[in-house]
Amino acid sequence: LLKEQMDQLVGRINGKFSTATWSPIRYIYGCISHAELAGFYRDADVALITPLRDGMNLVAKEFVACQTQEPGVLVLSPFAGAGGMMHEALLVNPYEMGTVAKILHRALTMPKDERELRMNALRNRERINDVQFWMKSFLKAIGSLLEEDGEEVLPTE
After folding, report:
1. Each residue of 63-75: pLDDT tens digit?
2. pTM for the whole thing?
3. For residues 90 and 106, is the Cβ–Cβ distance under 8 A?
4. Which is more confidently placed, 7 or 134?
5. Which of 122, 136, 137 is CA-nearest to residue 61?
6. Phi and psi dihedrals of 123, rounded to 5?
7. What is the rounded CA–CA span in Å between residue 89 and residue 60?
8. Average pLDDT, stretch 134-149?
9. d(CA 122, CA 82)
């Protein structure tokens, strides 16, 4: 039933707003390869990532990493784990549908210079805060917790 409702809603939206060379929603039901997904992220004008509760949410980071051509806009829920760190994203509460529509409009009409500034800052932060950074931070946090208990397990530098 939910899939049927999604199919109908996407059909109505695309039917109303599509042109011969563009459609607002690229709806794919099924699996796609990593390469195809990266291509979708690269070509997307906007990524709307609106989980209803906290999570690591690597999708936002993947979108930023793949934005290598025309800069898109990241729209995030404040409930996304990445929402507190990706300050250049537009934040929107997914429970406030009217606000979601306004933020999507803002993202789709954002001037190129603002999109570039936001995306460059997001990319730079992701370059710095890579997997090595997170691993070292995690191990350091564990080390400080262990040291507080009087036990030193990690080698000191």
Report:
1. 999 999 899 999 9
2. 0.78
3. yes
4. 7
5. 122
6. -65, -45
7. 9
8. 71
9. 11
Q: Is it the case that residue 57 has pLDDT exceeding 80?
A: no
In which residue are the tokens 């300050």 written?
Answer: 87
What are the tens digits of pLDDT across the range 31-54? 999 999 999 999 999 999 988 876
Among 122, 65, 129, which residue's Cα sits nearest to residue 88?
122
Distance, C-alpha 128 to centroid of its chain:
17
Q: Which of 56, 14, 6, 58 is nearest to 37 (CA)?
A: 58
What's the distance, Cα to Cα, between the start and end of the chain in Å?
Answer: 58
Query: Residue with structure tokens 């109908």?
Result: 8
Q: What is the DSSP string of 124-146?
A: HHHHHS-HHHHHHHHHHHHHHHH
What are the tens digits of pLDDT across the range 97-123? 999 999 999 999 999 999 999 999 999
| Residues in Cβ contact with 55 at an 8 Å cutoff, skipping those fewer than 6 apart | 80, 81
Q: d(Cα 83, Cα 71) in Å, to the nearest integer?
A: 19
| DSSP-based three-state secondary structure for 94 | coil
The H-or-E segment that residue 90 falls in is strand 90-91
Residue the block writes with tokens 């404040």: 78
DSSP state of 79: T
Instruction: Tell me the two tokens of residue 31.
Output: 């699996």
73 in Cβ contact with 45 (< 8 Å): yes
